[in-house]
Amino acid sequence: MDKKTPLYDRHVQLGATIQPFAGYLMPIKYDAIKKEHMAVRNSVGAFDLTHMGEFRVTGKDSVAFLDNLLTNDADVAPGEAYYSTMCYPDGGIVDDLIVYRIAEQEYLMVVNAANLEKDWAWVQSHLQGYEVSVVNESDTTALVAVQGPKAQAVCGKLTGEDLDSIGYYEHTSGTFAGVKALIARTGYTGEDGFEIYMACPDAEKVWDAVMEAGEEFGIVPVGLGARDTLRLEVGYPLYGNDIDHSTTPVEAKLTWVLKLKTDKDFIGREFIEQQKNDKPGRYLVGMKVTGKGFPRQGTPLFSGDRKVGIVTSGSIAPALEEAVCMGYVERGFQKNGSELEAEVRGKRIPVRIVKVPFYTEGSRK
Amino acid sequence: MSSIPEDLRYTETHEWVKKEGDAFIVGLTDHAQHEMGEIVMAELPEAGSELTMGDAAGGLEAVKTAEDFYAPMDGEVIEVNGELEGNPALINESPYGEGWLFKMKASDDSQFDGLLSADDYKAHIGE
Question: Domain containing A203: what range?
């Protein structure tokens, strides 16, 4: 039985197309994906992301525990956050996540909904030897994201907190729309914006307040469809498409989330460090479709007769009005400007490897 | 509820067919365009190409999905909707009008009578 978020009734009232996703009945779109996408690029949109998982880590070994579990460095200040991968000993990716440092000995891990059970089991199996407590707060925590260049104008009306003092990947705990919330300047759209975490019973109050405060800016509710095109347009990888157990952070060009310059050990470090030094056999790249067609997940990539890769995500980029995709290509073919061909429905379509993000005009601070 | 005009015939693969003189116009149903969402590219068959009933005649790309469409009857493509090249969203905006896909001459007009009626199609999509 799929779960409903506390905002389910709102989505139904708004006429959303609702589909099961990661065990939840989630809004895929309310109106049209391109419209929702462009509202976030040009003004502001609101997302219900309550399906995401939240694990709270407390205790005196919090830093050491997270440093072992995650590839990135837990050494950020309280009020800051970091993005990381969590890897298996073979370098494959368990999940990618954001970690907020709430206090000296308190962190909040936010994981992908589709990986929640697997992540929870993984985290549980690595507690031994650390004086920490990890609590799964996923079922009691709601998440509303407000994203777009007008996000601060909207959120500023709903909190007494000084939002100017919250930089990108920073957060504060305070009152938002009259309820207790974690207010974070994070997101998955390439735009400026906030992610507001609150207790489930408070979600409707926050959602209604956001929609009302955003009315003057033409705020629209945004479904998971546009969430996917927004992230693809700025080249953010999606777990299950672009990264998974069969890929490593080195192959996915996520070396910036690896604390290899420190002497801190972490699960997967040995393999990952070796692979980085040896260079991996393939790389995740962004591609613009220069011909006519839409490569999608699973579309093979060719250089002449030779299959050199596979597409992992593909769609139209609404703000660019062209088709883009991401995928893995063999080492030697990953250079920007390289021309390859995607085979769609038996036809070869030319693509060109380009630097990501595809879209570079975002308001992200 | 999607629109299912009474005067058209339908396929289980969500094409509609309209008899016009001695030719047949083929398009995508309102139900199917709604399920697909915003269509961003239509790959149409070439005029003059021979089609076999049930075979893929072309493809449609929406933001999130791609679907083939199928020949509802045996025959030859005599015209395709050139407007869709620059404006594939016509399929969403006017699935039974300006968003038509192609016209064909059937090798056996009686195949038309074997297609689904509006009521059959309605039952097929569970409405």
Answer: 3-51+139-233
| Domain CATH for B86 | 2.40.50.100
Q: Based on the structure, what is the number of domains in chain A?
A: 3
Domain assignment of residue B127, yes or no:
no
- Please count the structural domains in chain B: 1
Domain boundary among A104, A136, A168: A136
Strand pairing category for A24-29 and A3-4: parallel
**C-alpha distance from residue B111 to each of A175, A273, B24 (Å):** 67, 65, 11
Query: What's this model's pTM, rounded to 2 decimal places?
Result: 0.93
The pLDDT tens digits along chain B (127 residues) read 799 999 999 999 999 999 999 999 999 999 999 999 999 999 999 999 999 999 999 999 999 889 999 999 999 999 999 999 999 999 999 999 999 999 999 999 999 999 999 999 999 999 8
**What is the C-alpha to C-alpha distance for residues A313 and A300, in angstroms, rounded to an integer?**
12
Report ipTM (2 d.p.). 0.81
Closest CA to A344 of B30, B28, B119, B66: B66
* Token reading at A27: 């809004």
Task: Determine, for residues A345 and B40 on separate chains, whether the beta-carbon distance falls below 8 Å.
Answer: no
Residue B26 phi/psi, 5° resolution? -120, 140
Interface contact flag, B43 A293, Cβ < 8 Å: yes
| Least CB–CB distance from B63: residue in A33, A293, A345 | A33
